[in-house]
């Protein structure tokens, strides 16, 4: 019988994953989402197989690359919705999103 041990990445795999995400964020900002996965792997200095092992699809890579930004946006929107004055909440949300 096998037990459900928590799966933790080796330090080199964790480093590769972070390099892939950093490269993806940088290339998406400059060239948009149409950049080929091989280019992201090249910029991250990993092989395509390593990239696909961590992120089997581009959609998964994009979602993970922008998770922090989406959570920050969600927090700002929630704060704006909590404001008792809808107009003030809307204006503050737009201001904060532009700052972000």
Give the terminus-to-terminus CA distance. Answer: 49 Å
Share of helix among residues? Answer: over 70%
In percent terms, what proportion of residues is strand? under 5%
Categorize the overall geometry. elongated
The overall strand count is 0
Ranges where pLDDT stays below 50 over 5 or more residues in a row are none
Mean pLDDT reading: 91
Largest sheet geometry: none
Q: Quickly give the structural class.
A: mainly alpha
**Individual helix count:** 6
Radius of gyration: 18 Å
Order of helices and strands: HHHHHH
Describe the structure.
By secondary structure, this protein is an all-alpha fold. It is 74% helix and 0% strand. The chain contains 6 helices and no strands. Helix 1 packs across helix 2 (37-44). It is elongated. The mean pLDDT is 91.
Describe what is shown at a glance.
Helices cover 74% and strands 0% of the residues. It has 100 residues and is mainly alpha-helical.
Topology at a glance:
Blueprint: H1 11-31, H2 37-44, H3 48-54, H4 58-65, H5 67-82, H6 86-99
Helix pairs in contact: 1-2, 1-4, 5-6
Give descriptors for this structure.
100 residues; mainly alpha; elongated
């Amino acid at each position: 019988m096998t037990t459900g041990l928590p799966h933790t990445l080796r330090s080199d795999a964790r480093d590769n994953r972070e390099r892939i995400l950093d490269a993806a964020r940088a290339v998406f900002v400059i060239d948009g989402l149409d950049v080929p996965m091989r280019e992201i792997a090249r910029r991250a200095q990993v092989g395509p197989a390593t990239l696909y092992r961590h992120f089997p699809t581009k959609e998964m890579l994009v979602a993970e690359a922008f998770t922090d930004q989406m959570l920050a946006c969600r927090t700002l929107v929630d704060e704006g919705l909590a404001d008792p004055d809808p107009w003030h909440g809307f204006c503050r949300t737009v201001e904060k999103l532009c700052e972000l």
